[in-house]
Design goal:
Length: about 450
């Protein structure tokens, strides 16, 4: 006889494997198989379901009273350790103090190698189905559960309790001769789907090759609302060559809930790391863009300040130059009035105007150059202004010297002019020509 065992399990949608309260187990030496569904609203049901299935398959023969008592002792020890942790929640402590029990449904199956027989028992809405290899219709299947006809799935199944001697409902038992075919042990969500789909369900189950196929099927059936959103677990035991003596296990693929949970946690941690890394990269990119924008704003501010400085200096130079030219013009006017030579005075006035234009043009070029240089400066604004102020007066003095030299050469032909501070010109004696020249500036 050859046996092939497959087992798949998953949690509710949007929950983790660690939240799943379904459990299954099997033992090759004792040829035993079991499945259990912890009732969600009870107190730590996943541990209770786990101890039920593990304790059942661990022994070749068990007694009901001893079986339940040992499962209860293991559950209580585990829960006590959890409740005594300093991080336990207050509502968990309250439920423990009130002696709230865990509840779970159960199915157990055992093969007897020598007798070539099988026996099974079930309590609650977890089911056992046996589909013979030569099945003609779904009615040929054996269905085992403590649910009575008509079968209605609700939130109040029969169960084993983790506290006390009482349990809800009465177990149903079934037995038979081993023959070629397949045993299916299922928790309530899959059992309801299996009964509704009948022959179609058998064809869909037979194509599952691994855990991923099972999970893909669960997702599809939930989307179509053919399968309820509940923890789902299934054990598939295929029997082949039942007439031969001995039992041989081949091609077993049974998913372990703890390995699935660990793998899922690693994937979650990886995704969280990738998300955090992506956010960090985005943050650095935003900082870089912000720094570039701030740098551009700083350069524009430097440029604007330089323009203001240059404009201010040009105004100052223009004002200083105007005052100086006015004094010189007054001197020239006095000299011209003494010599009574209108042609010489006119020539000097035109030369002074030309010199003024040349000085303004040169200073304007220097100012434009400073602004262009300032655009590429990222240092201190104070330094740039200082350098600008230090450069411009030199330019002004050099050009003023040229003007003064030119004026000196023009006025050398006339008699020297006395210092204005020593001999101020009375307003009453100021000539009309002198007044006109000053108004122009």
């Amino acid at each position: 006889m050859e046996l092939t065992v497959k087992g798949y399990i998953t949690s509710k949608k949007s929950e983790l494997f660690s939240d799943c309260a379904d459990r299954y187990a099997y033992n090759k030496h004792h040829h035993k198989f079991s499945i259990s569904d912890g009732v969600s609203k009870s107190f730590f049901p996943k541990f209770w379901a786990e101890y039920l299935v593990e304790e059942f398959v661990s022994r070749e023969k068990i007694e009901d009273e001893t079986f339940l008592l040992e499962c209860q002792e293991k559950w209580l020890k585990t829960i006590t350790e959890i409740v005594n942790k300093p991080t336990v929640k207050w509502f968990t402590q309250n439920a423990f103090n009130k002696k709230s029990p865990a509840l779970a449904t159960f199915v157990g199956l055992q093969f007897f190698e020598k007798e070539k027989k099988w026996e099974a028992s079930a309590l609650g809405d977890s089911f056992l189905f046996f589909v013979p290899k030569k099945m003609k219709t779904f009615e040929d299947c054996i269905i085992l559960s403590s649910k009575k006809e008509p079968i209605i799935f609700d939130n109040f199944p029969d169960y084993f309790s983790s506290i006390g001697e009482k349990f809800k409902g009465e177990r149903e038992n079934e037995s038979g001769n081993l023959q070629d075919g397949t045993f299916y042990l299922m928790t309530d969500a899959l059992a309801e789907w299996f009964i509704n789909e009948k022959e179609n369900a058998i064809g869909k189950v037979d194509v599952w090759q691994n855990q991923k196929d099972f999970e893909h099927f669960i997702d599809e059936e939930r989307q179509t609302e053919k399968l309820g959103n509940d923890d789902s677990a299934i054990l598939i035991i295929n029997v082949d060559k039942a007439s031969e003596s001995g039992i041989k296990y081949t091609g077993n693929t049974v998913s372990d809930i703890y390995q699935l949970s660990e793998k899922q946690n690693i994937e979650i941690s990886k995704r969280e790391f990738e998300i955090a890394q992506k956010k960090e990269i985005e943050k650095k990119e935003l900082q870089r863009i912000e720094e570039e924008e701030n740098s551009k704003v700083g350069e524009n501010e430097i440029s604007e300040e330089l323009e203001l400085v240059v404009e201010k200096e040009l105004v100052n130079v223009d004002n200083n130059e105007t005052e100086e030219e006015t004094v010189n013009n007054l001197k020239e006017t006095e000299s011209t009035s003494k010599n009574d030579n209108p042609e010489v005075s006119k020539e000097k006035t035109e030369m002074n105007l030309e010199a003024k234009k040349d000085t303004k043009g040169l200073l304007q070029k220097v100012g434009d150059g400073l602004v262009k240089v300032g655009i590429f400066i990222t240092g201190s604004d104070t330094t740039n202004e200082k350098e600008t102020k230090e450069i411009e007066p030199k330019q002004e003095n050099s050009e003023s010297n040229k003007v003064e030299k030119k004026e000196d050469s023009n006025t050398s032909k006339t008699e020297p002019i006395k210092d204005i501070k020593q001999e101020p010109i009375p307003k009453a004696k100021e000539s009309k020509q002198s007044k006109n020249i000053t108004d122009k500036f």
